[in-house]
Write the structure tokens for this entry.
Amino acid sequence: MSKLNDFGFGTQIRRGPFFDATVRWGAKDFSVYNHMYIPRDFGDPEQNFWNLINEAVLCDVAVERQVQIKGPDASKFVQMMTPRDLSKMQVGQCKYVILTNQFGGILNDPVMLKVSNDCYWFSLADSDILFWAQGLAVNSKFDVEITEPDVSPIQLQGPKSKDIMVKIFGEEILDIKYYWFKRFNLNGIDLLISRTGWSSEFGYELFLLNFDDGDALYETLMQSGKELGLHPGHTSTIRRIEGAMLSYHSDMDINTNPFELGLDKFIDLDKDFDFVGKDALLKIKEDGIKRKQVGILIHDKPMAGPNTHHWNINKDNQCIGKVTSAVYSPRLKLNIGLAIVDIDFSDIGSTFNVNIDNSWVDAEIVEKPFYDPNKCIAKNSYS
């Protein structure tokens, strides 16, 4: 990792409202996501993992930029953007949605929030959906306004996050159900708080509604929570791969379709609404997928860190796929990963070789997620 003052900061990349606070609290390195800086290093990533699963971490995820769809036709417009049926979505509810292009390729997999009957937010992974949405609207007859609002999420995740949030916001915070949100005001700071998060752990996301309050919010959360076990940190690659959580550009992109990833439950092709990519997805489903995402174990010494590029997979000297994400899990004491392989080689128990730095290593397909497969931890509160 480079030293902080060696990082190539520039004016073309945005700093979020929590940037200065994360530096004060120990951020040592950053990367770029959605044209913004995101802290990636607060020290040992394994310790960050243990902090997350045993206590709690505060993660600056302001890079999850919001796209707001607002107007009389907002509900019709967002339904046109996603294959998931939104007809029963209520104000105050969040939904994980897939956004597809005309070929059925995945453009993004945001969490969508219904802020009001005529206003929705997409909380984005790393791709320019603002431009896509505005482009879709140009030649349409939908009465909508598409903007990036002044909204910046930060997430507090881990088993102690509930106690920390109760201390700060009171018992009312416990009324928020999984994938729902409520509005709060903390010492003059306006927030929208949801029971979501990119961690596979129990937690909350706090959507800051005024950029200028970012520093005060971060400090308030850390100062209030540190005696209850809160640590400054970053999203954990180890935990997200344990939970088989997908990372855009790593595990999927515009050339990946939802069926290859096993995301069928978010694709409602039998409903009467239309959306971008419906014809393509109907054909893909009819023809059958040619490849499939799988979970793998890599039988080698513990990996020193996550993969930084895709690794080729061979079977009988034939390339059959690639490893998209891989890491050593200190809890499971295994090298675990996600891969996409030809459908003929995708059965549980199948074996093959992975090319890691020009060395071929044995691997096998196993069930995923690797830990807490029913997501009981993230869904349920702690007693």
About this structure: The longest strand covers residues 318-329. The first helix runs from residue 19 to 24. The radius of gyration is 21 Å. The chain has a mean pLDDT of 96.
